[in-house]
Amino acid sequence: MAVKQAQIMVVTPHPDDAEFGVAGTVVKWVKEGKDVVYVVCTNGNKGTSDINMKPERLAEIREREQQCAADLLGVREVVFLRHEDQGLEDTPEFRKEIVRLIRKYRPEIVVTSDPYRRYLWHRDHRITGQVVLDAIFPYARDLHAYPDLLPEGLEPHKVKEVWLWTLMEDINHRSDITETFDVKVKALQCHASQVGNHRFPELEERLRQWAKDRAEGEEFELAEAFHRVEILW
Q: Staple partner for 15: which of 62, 72, 145, 217, CB 3.0–4.6 Å?
């Protein structure tokens, strides 16, 4: 398997989660010349209240929506793992999938969902975050973890930083998205099955307030918030 290096890897539980969590920052990275790769863990086939929408059809729609958003943001590539929505589990197989991709793309930064949000949190978000953290350390790093990957040319790789998108818990890093907020909004509009046009103006205002809240105390107006971990070992 050929190595296809990218500086940033975003691992998202569902189509649209990355747009809510990190899209404004992704645009900044792309403008700086960094390659960004998305990994979408589930197919999102449960994300509807429309009784006439079949799960198989919804999965197809949401994959197209995610590709639309990624293209708009300038994401280089989208990897769709296509696990069942609401079906992720912390298994060696899922962890190996993520290790394989980390070793393939060799990112400096991995961005994913915070698995440690207290109380109510979508299980797929919690599982994704935990599996990604475990995949980064120690499995992607260690020579004898998943030794069958070595003959494929997937050598160990040390990620330098992990960014966990979060709500208001344990924030230690804020990214200025004042100049990229409008692109974030347009990317979210690609996810029409989730944020239909009839309610988008209200959602856009909520997103703006959300970004203002995360920029509180900073010199910039709008922000995305993360718990950022530098990996020193």
A: 62
Q: Report how far residue 208's alpha carbon sits from residue 186's, in angstroms, rounded to the nearest whole number.
A: 13
Residue-wise pLDDT for 93-140, tens only, equals 999 999 999 999 999 999 999 998 878 778 999 999 999 999 999 999
Q: How far is Cα 107 from Cα 79, in angstroms, rounded to an integer? A: 14
Longest dimension (CA), the chain: 53
DSSP 164-183: EE-SSSS--EEEE-TTTHHH
CA distance 78 to 6: 12
Q: Which residues pair with 10 in a beta bridge?
A: 38, 111
Count of other CB atoms within 10 angstroms of residue 76: 16
- Report the C-alpha gap between 24 and 115 in whole angstroms: 21
Question: What phi and psi, each to the nearest 5 degrees, are found at residue 165?
Answer: -75, 140
Q: Which domains does the chain have, with CATH numbers?
A: 8-230 (3.40.50.10320)
Neighbours of 128 (CB within 10 A): 28
